[in-house]
Amino acid sequence: MRAFPALPDATVLAEPELLEAFRHDESHIVGCLPLAVVRPHGPAALRELVRLAKAEGFGLVPRGAGTGKAGGCIPTARTVVVDLSAWPGSLSVSPQDLSLQAPASALLREVKAAASEAGFFYPPDPNSWESCALGGTLATNAGGPNACKYGMTRHWVLGLDVLLADGEIHRFGIRSVKANAGPNLAQLFLGSEGIFGLILGATLRLTPKPRDYTTLLLPVKRWMDLLDLPGRLSAAGFLPSAFEFFDPAVLAELRAHGPEEARRLPGEALAILEFDERGCTSDDFLEALADLLGPVADGLEMASDARQREGIWAVRRITSAFLKERHPKKVSEDIVVPRSRLREFFERLEGTGIPAVSYGHLGDGNLHVNLLAASDTAPAALEAQLMTLFRLATELGGTLSGEHGIGLAKRDAFLALAEPGHIETLRALKRSLDPAGIFNPGKVI
Ligand code: 2HG
Ligand code: ZN
């Protein structure tokens, strides 16, 4: 293509040195240099961009803040990055409708803060929540520790504004949880990673803000003891708002090389448990909980104020970046195993001999299995190890991605492991919604 044309109502970046930064997200993948980066400021820009994409045969890759972990916003060959960071719109809360309207460009922390200032809670909390864009969390259906109780981003969306292949912005959904006039099309776009259309804004669902928190550090003497706990808690009627864990290897590494507050972490393995329902600080609740946790606990520490609670969470929040700094070439996965099969998973993982360490969201079985020495492993052997891991999760009734999505990083594995009917259905939807193949080509399917 000749020099990238000017567009109405948009900023266009085309200088190679400016485009370079857009080849990355927070995965290990480096993408192609895009033809241009377009920052649309209104519908006229998108209308023209869609027309040009079809006429010139290039793809449109949506991008929020670039904090994704699966390469979903990384340019493939002959694509233009649609950087939605300047998409207009303001945040507004409707207390009567328990909803919040926001543009894709809003940062998730702004959305959570706006909800909180109005006395409400917007639960999705991926680790990148302070820097990621709302649009990215919608496109990837982001998770996080609170998904354990509150579900993922898709559970908190009432409606979406989506750019479709006709170049126009369409609205799906209303400001109510009860909406049953035919299939819910907004849900189709959530977690679709931009392959069906581009998400530009959303009406989000809110819930009253929790008032009470019980936050516990649960060290265990034997790591395997931790693995039955999520299922036992559920069976006993407890629903933690977060249940995170560090296996012995991650815990030892944090203790030896982590920040000050990590040096004193106890146990062979460690969990962070949080409850946020009304009454969770009462003696009755805590006694019943202690009865359940006591037999496996090697001491139990409870945060007594907001500062201590924050201190506990700070260690968990830095874990991914900390491991990445120490092992820059590590490969980190986000598989899921049903709670009832966690013990079996870790026993069988050990049996495979794959040198993996793990931490993450034990309460919902979403495990960040890390291969720290990935760069010392031959590429084919590494791929075989990852496939063994994904197969094991799948065999146990889980899946290869619980929250980060497929993007480019897991596309081959997804195509190999998903049921053929699943892939064919996704491809049929893609052909019908995006016949020219302009939306995020080469991703997911
Ligand atoms: C987390 O839970 C994030 O910390 C990142 O999902 C996990 O780096 C990772 O793989
Ligand atoms: Zn995670």
Offer a concise description of the structure.
This protein has helices spanning 16-19, 43-56, 108-117, 134-140, 147-150, 185-189, 229-235, 248-257, 260-263, 283-293, 306-326, 342-352, 379-395, 411-417, 420-433; strands at residues 10-13, 36-40, 59-63, 79-83, 92-94, 99-103, 120-121, 157-163, 169-172, 198-205, 207-208, 214-220, 242-246, 269-275, 301-302, 331-332, 335-336, 357-361, 366-371. It has 445 residues and is of the alpha+beta class. The chain has 3 domains: 10-86, Uridine Diphospho-n-acetylenolpyruvylglucosamine Reductase, domain 2; 92-208, Uridine Diphospho-n-acetylenolpyruvylglucosamine Reductase, domain 3 (2-Layer Sandwich), CATH 3.30.465.10; 214-395, Vanillyl-alcohol Oxidase, Chain A, domain 3, CATH 3.40.462.
Q: What does this molecule look like?
A:
The protein is α+β, with helices and mostly antiparallel strands and 445 residues long. The protein folds into three domains: 10-86, Uridine Diphospho-n-acetylenolpyruvylglucosamine Reductase, domain 2; 92-208, 2-Layer Sandwich (Uridine Diphospho-n-acetylenolpyruvylglucosamine Reductase, domain 3); 214-395, FAD-linked oxidases, C-terminal domain (Vanillyl-alcohol Oxidase, Chain A, domain 3, 3-Layer(aba) Sandwich), CATH 3.40.462.10. Helix content is 33%, strand content 19%. The chain has 15 helices and 19 strands. The chain has helices at residues 16-19, 43-56, 108-117, 134-140, 147-150, 185-189, 229-235, 248-257, 260-263, 283-293, 306-326, 342-352, 379-395, 411-417, 420-433; strands spanning 10-13, 36-40, 59-63, 79-83, 92-94, 99-103, 120-121, 157-163, 169-172, 198-205, 207-208, 214-220, 242-246, 269-275, 301-302, 331-332, 335-336, 357-361, 366-371. Strands 12, 13, 14, 15, 16, 17, 18 and 19 form an eight-stranded antiparallel sheet that branches. A five-stranded antiparallel sheet has the order 5-6-10-8-9. Strand 5 (92-94) and strand 6 form a beta hairpin. It is globular, with a radius of gyration of 22 Å. The mean pLDDT is 97. The structure holds (2R)-2-hydroxypentanedioic acid and zinc ion.
